[in-house]
Design the sequence.
């Protein structure tokens, strides 16, 4: 493990950088990529370095960003373009190593241990990769280096992103630099967990690293040990191209264009979500037995909602099976307050061809129906056929069919 050389390459302000390459007139202007404010999705998804100098941050509202920088250029997202560019960057990385593992759309791990004989020392190789991505794609990458994935990730986030060359290595020889950082900078520690750790007298990553691991395990189980290992730069997980092949769940989440208050309207969207989850499961060749329903309230100042699940008696990838389970969860746990977002997922997946037939249910009929629907959607697109309820004012299926990840393609 100590001889491994792992890269985490991150593209600076990915969406905004791609937009500047797409439209050269934006090159020297502050740019943000944001959703559609008219449909209540006006949130900053990415801000270029020039925009960030005005104090604009990711996830703030479009209105707030424009107050900070009235002349900022606002670009709506082009999600298909970002996916295509991300794949192009993956192919560039594969010129350096065959071990490339996507971490997110703009971050990818690389195991370059065996590539140094060809491309030179790790820092030399990182620079070559950086230049190659810049010349071929036009975007700037920052590269964290470490003996494992967790150190490479934190090297990139906390050091490579802040130095002039955009490259930094973190290992046992300089881990004390990491230990000086606030506890919230630990990979996997958010605001809530940070408060818990500070309540235990742990305010820096170094204090977490030196805290008795047994006490952390006693409070949080295996997650407590993972936190301790992360702070100490311990990570045994390999870089693997098969990470995303073994899917654990299939889900679909939707931020609503307005407050939904009527059960009749919510029911329509819930059915659309279940239809999409079922379609994705069939596309991937899965069935599942655990249905989850998640809801978030409309009040940002006093957030409400729930995330509950139920296990079905037999596995399924049929939309109405999923819907009936999700709807029961919704009715049971909804507090009747306006909702802003809704999500459904199916987990505990298994291959679709390995299921036990329910003798009291004609599953063959449903399989034939699913096959017919999937054939129509594959040939003519997602707007070719959908339920009549989706053409009501509450329905979102037609609008969502033109989007990827909630944003227009």
Sequence:
């Amino acid at each position: 493990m100590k001889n491994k050389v792992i890269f985490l390459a991150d593209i600076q302000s990915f969406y905004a950088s791609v937009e500047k390459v797409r439209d050269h007139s934006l090159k020297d202007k502050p740019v943000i990529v944001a959703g559609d404010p008219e449909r209540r999705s006006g949130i900053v998804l990415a801000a270029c370095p020039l925009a960030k100098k005005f104090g604009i941050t990711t996830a703030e509202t479009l209105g707030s960003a424009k107050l900070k920088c009235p002349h900022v250029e606002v670009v709506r997202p082009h999600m298909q373009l970002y996916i295509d560019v991300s794949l192009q960057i993956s192919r560039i990385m594969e010129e350096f190593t065959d071990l490339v593992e996507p971490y997110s759309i703009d971050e990818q791990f690389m195991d370059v241990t065996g590539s140094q004989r060809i491309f030179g020392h790790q820092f030399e190789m990182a620079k070559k990769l950086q230049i190659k991505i810049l010349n071929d794609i036009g975007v700037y990458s920052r590269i964290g280096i470490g003996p494992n994935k967790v150190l490479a990730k934190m090297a990139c986030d906390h050091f490579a992103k802040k130095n002039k060359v955009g490259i930094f290595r973190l290992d046992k020889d300089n881990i004390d630099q990491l230990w000086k950082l606030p506890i919230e900078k630990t990979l996997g520690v958010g605001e809530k967990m940070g408060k818990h750790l500070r309540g235990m007298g742990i305010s820096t990553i170094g204090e977490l690293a030196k805290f008795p691991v047994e006490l952390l395990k006693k409070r949080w189980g295996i997650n407590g040990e993972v936190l301790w290992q992360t702070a100490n730069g311990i990570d045994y997980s390999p870089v693997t191209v098969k990470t995303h092949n073994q899917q654990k769940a299939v889900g679909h989440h939707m931020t609503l264009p307005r407050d939904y208050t009527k059960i009749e309207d919510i029911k329509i969207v819930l059915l659309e979500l279940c239809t999409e989850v079922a379609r994705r499961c069939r596309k991937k060749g899965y069935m599942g037995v655990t249905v989850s329903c998640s809801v978030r309230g409309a009040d940002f100042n006093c957030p409400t909602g729930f995330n509950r699940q139920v296990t079905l008696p037999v596995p399924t990838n049929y939309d109405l099976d999923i819907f009936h389970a999700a709807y029961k969860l919704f009715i049971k746990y909804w507090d009747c307050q306006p909702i802003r977002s809704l999500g459904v997922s199916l987990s505990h997946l298994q291959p679709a061809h390995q299921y036990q037939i329910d003798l009291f249910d004609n599953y063959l009929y449903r399989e034939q129906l699913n096959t017919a629907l999937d054939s129509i959607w594959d040939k003519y697109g997602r707007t070719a056929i959908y339920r009549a309820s989706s053409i009501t004012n509450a329905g979102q299926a037609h609008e969502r069919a033109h989007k990827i990840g909630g944003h227009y393609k």
The two ends are 41 Å apart (CA to CA). Residues 400 and 406 are 7 Å apart (CA to CA).
